[in-house]
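Allow me, if you will, to draw on your knowledge of protein folds for a short while. The matter concerns a single protein, recorded as an amino acid sequence and a row of C-alpha cells. Could you please explain, in whatever detail you think fit, how the C-alpha cells follow from the sequence? I remain grateful for any guidance, and I place the record below:

…
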Amino acid sequence: MEKFKAEIQSRNKRVVLAASIIFFVYIYLSRKTGVPDAMNDLVAGYNLGLLIALQVGAIYFITKYNKALKSNDQLKKLYIELHDERKKLIQYKSSVIGMSIFIFILLLATIISGFYNLIVFYTLLGVCLMILITLVFVKLYFLKKI
C-alpha cells in the first residue's frame, strides 16, 4: 500500500503542476494578446470556460487524493476504484467504440464540407490525418511494449 500511496502523491503533484501551468499560460496569453481585442467574445468565453472547468477538475482530484492520503480506509477504496478490472474493460470498450464512431462522423463531415467550404475541408482533413498519425504511433508503441 506504500507504493500506491507514493503513486497517489506523485499523481497529486502532477495535477497541481498541470493546473498551475495551464493557469499561467492562460494568463500570459490573455495579457499578451489582449483577449477582447484579439478574439471575439465567443472564443474568449470558450477559453475562460474551459480554463475554469479544468481548474475545477484539478481541485476535485487534488481534494480526492488528499482525502485518500489521510485515511487508510479511503486509500484502500481509491485503490479498488482505480484497479477495478471490470470498470477498466468497460472504459476500454466504450472508448474504442466511441472513437470509431467519432472518426466515422469526422470523415463524413470532411466529405460534406468539401462541397461547401475549402478551408473547413482542409481543416477537417488535417484533423483526420493527425488522428490517423496518432493512432499509428500509439499502435506501434503498444506493439513494442506488449
Summary: Helices lie at 2-33, 35-38, 41-70, 72-82, 85-113, 118-145. Residues 1-83 form one domain. The two ends are 26 Å apart (CA to CA).
